[in-house]
Specification:
It is elongated and about 95 Å long. It is α+β, with helices and mostly antiparallel strands. A hairpin with a 6-residue loop joins strand 9 and strand 10. Helix content is 38%, strand content 26%. The protein has a 4-stranded mixed sheet with strand order 1-2-3-4, with helices on both faces. A 4-stranded antiparallel sheet has the order 7-6-9-10, with no helix packed on it. The chain has 3 domains: 135 residues, 3-Layer(aba) Sandwich (Rossmann fold), CATH 3.40.50; 63 residues, Carboxypeptidase-like, regulatory domain (Immunoglobulin-like), CATH 2.60.40.1120; 61 residues.
Length: 303
């Protein structure tokens, strides 16, 4: 059914339009901001800004799209207080509910060979708990794709650094027997049994001890939880002695023979002979001693 009101259609539609425009709209609760500065070209800063914002959203940030005033950008770029880092954040950001800020300075330089290079100096400033992470990265021959990759990796590293410092995610590694080396994601971090702070996400832990097989574990650490790794190390198989015995006795015999030849050459000739082998005798004596020692070592190993 269609109802019409002659003479009032236009005012009614106008009222509806005004009401729809005036109706309250949902407010976006931004909690993070990305600030890009530096002396590089606008294109470089734009590429870096897009990559960092995408990384922040990937980490769960609601990234603000509101611009930051130039004086506030300069203040953030100069911020370096590790004790009270949030004091560097302008009140204009804090009043908008911003709790964490990526600050990237993008500059252009040249390498020693004259090749162009982009220098990324990056900070991550957080409010709760207060924290500051700082890193720098150099990108040579940096086309847009490489600059995007470098910016993304740098932003992820800062997130990981701050997560580790927060102490909310813990890794506990134990082994039997203890005293084994712990490698986390390719980095040596200590020895068992031990507890470390890490960042949420996938990790690879390797536990190694001389005389035992190396154990490898993959795990996913969760924010606010302890990930435990416990391994029982199995003894490594004994190294076969036969090749070692052959190498020691065979090499020692060759050295002894060579030493004898040199001793013989060194004993020949007098002051009026045409051919003289100066230094052959001392070298022969050393080779003979080394060869004899190797033969003795090989014989001892065999029995």
């Amino acid at each position: 059914m269609v109802v019409t009101c002659p003479g009032r259609a236009v005012p009614l539609l106008a009222a509806l339009a005004v009401g729809a425009w005036a109706a309250p709209r949902p407010v976006r609760a931004d909690d993070g901001s990305v600030v890009i500065g530096g002396a590089a070209e606008d294109r470089d800063r734009s590429v870096v800004g897009a990559a960092v914002a995408a990384t922040a959203r990937e980490a769960g940030w609601a990234v603000s799209r509101d611009p930051v005033a130039a004086p506030d950008v300069d203040r953030l770029l100069a911020c370096s207080d590790p004790v009270r880092p949030w004091a560097c954040v302008p009140a204009s950001l804090g009043s908008r509910g911003i709790r964490r800020v990526f600050v990237f300075a993008v500059d252009r330089r040249q390498t020693a060979s004259g090749a162009p290079m982009v220098v990324l100096t990056a900070k991550l400033i957080a409010l709760a708990p207060q924290g500051l992470a700082v890193r720098q990265r150099f990108c040579e021959h940096c086309a847009d794709d490489r600059l995007t990759r470098a910016s993304t990796e740098l932003a992820r590293q800062l997130l990981q650094d701050l997560a580790v410092r927060s102490g909310r995610t813990v890794l506990d590694v134990a082994s039997s027997p203890p005293g084994a080396r712990i490698t986390l994601d390719g980095q040596l971090i200590g020895a068992t049994n031990a507890t470390f702070h890490t960042f949420p996400g996938a990790h690879v832990v390797e536990v190694a001890k001389s005389g035992f097989r190396t154990e490898r574990r993959e795990l996913v650490a969760e924010d606010g939880k302890t990930a435990a790794v416990t391994v029982v190390l199995a003894a490594a198989p004994a190294v076969p002695r036969r090749p070692l015995v052959i190498a020691l006795i065979g090499g020692g015999a060759l050295a002894a023979i060579a030493g004898g030849v040199l001793l013989d050459l060194g004993s020949r000739g007098g002051p009026h002979d045409k051919y003289r082998y100066v230094g052959a005798a001392p070298a022969g004596a050393l080779l003979g001693i080394a060869g004899t020692a190797a033969i003795i070592a090989g014989w001892t190993t065999a029995f």
